[in-house]
């Protein structure tokens, strides 16, 4: 990862990688003008990849997603420093509904489907920003991924948690986004359903070429589908690498995957892990 | 028992009731989309009626041109109110916004009196025959028109919310504004659209009432009658508003009948809806169709 200023300099030995689809550069996010949540966070999401953003509660993962999708504005939050570049254009400070039109769709934490509408109406809502005539075909496509949704014709509020998550993902697909931001798709789901949801996420990424930025508590599941991962602590990225690197990293094993070694590490090591500074 | 009077009153009740239903519907529309209780709803009727009157009586525009012009004006006017007066209030406590609508109502009343004077004005003749006879009942032609127009608007509204994507967007906004924004819906334009549609629909009702009774500031009393109708139906239910309106309209006329035949108290017509309002608030505060949150078991 490089800092914004370094991007301009030629880097010896670096392969001429194509510009990432989404690039978050050293952003700082403040809520209500006083609460500093993200303190200089940077990350890149290459075109067509699945990237996982991991970390403990309160690390600022959801805030990062909301900063990208612009929904921060609806919660009195603001990007006060740094920039967010999507598809070559700056999108920090843009209204959330306009960001959807540019091709970023966020599946919010807790699914947030419209419970007093049917699942079909929810899917049609997902296509709100589109004016082409292929909406009906895309509804069929979503039903192909999630056959169960087709059978449930009642109000979406009565769907099970897993079905609601599927509906939320289906609704995102209806917008034909370039990129989907997923906030904890595994929340409240049984292990079997988590597996199913993640395999569908992988499938969607492969079939449709949708780039996915995935926020997860369930690090194991997330790293099983992601090609690259970032680990956040207290509003910063503390570690990043390919999914394999992260899986093999001793600290990640200890803190996020569980069951690393035979004996627990001492608190001294824990501190040193947190203190390891990175200037992304 | 005076059957003929009763039937006549029931028909009146149905006609006036559907009109209440239409106004209640436009009232609920604003409430549903923006959570604002609009105390200036009656004035929207009045503005519509005055504008149409001015076009027809002053500028001698034929009705079939004047009416669409009125509607276009009211649509733009609704958007203007939202942008100029209410948009800066977004994010303020809802009670402040409601106070603003009370202020709007006063300002509109005063301005209209200033422009059009305080005297009631008769509406120009629109139909060649005053009344038509249906099954032996004399019904004013304008009432027939009113019924047809009201039902058409109700069907239109149902289509809008059930099928059109802007209707879905409005429902999503009513459900959760953050969710709506995450779907690419601009909450500000939904609010503007809610006011525009509400003002337009109210204006239709205003013109219909004005054709029957002439235009006067008393017309805005319809805005007050809307409260029992909307609350009976459940404040956030469009269908409930329609049904509530019809029930209130029938009730008024039944009260009128009982009053004139048996009780001779006078004025029961005016108060009956508000007794109903009190009773509903006591026994069914959510109204007949007011939504309670879905609980998944």
TrEMBL record, chain A:
GO MF entries: ATP binding; ATP hydrolysis activity; branched-chain amino acid transmembrane transporter activity
Entry's family note: Belongs to the ABC transporter superfamily.
Keyword Nucleotide-binding tagged: yes
Biological processes annotated in GO: L-amino acid transport
UniProt keyword terms in alphabetical order: Amino-acid transport, ATP-binding, Nucleotide-binding, Transport
Function field: Involved in beta-(1-->2)glucan export. Transmembrane domains (TMD) form a pore in the inner membrane and the ATP-binding domain (NBD) is responsible for energy generation.
Name this polypeptide is given: ABC transporter ATP-binding protein
Residue span, ABC transporter domain: 22-259
Protein source organism: Rhodopseudomonas palustris
Stored SUPFAM superfamilies: P-loop containing nucleoside triphosphate hydrolases
From TrEMBL, chain B:
A GO MF label: transmembrane transporter activity
Residue stretches spanning the membrane: 6-29, 36-57, 63-85, 97-117, 137-161, 190-215, 227-250, 262-283
Signal peptide feature range: none
KW Membrane (keyword) present: yes
One GO BP annotation of this record: amino acid transport
GO cellular component: plasma membrane
Family: Belongs to the binding-protein-dependent transport system permease family. LivHM subfamily.
The keyword ATP-binding appears for this protein: no
Compartment annotation: Cell membrane
Protein's name in the database: Branched-chain amino acid ABC transporter permease
UniProt keyword list: Amino-acid transport, Cell membrane, Membrane, Transmembrane, Transmembrane helix, Transport
UniProt-listed Pfam families: BPD_transp_2
Alphabetized InterPro entries for the sequence: ABC_transp_permease, BCAA_transport_permease
Membrane topology classification: Multi-pass membrane protein
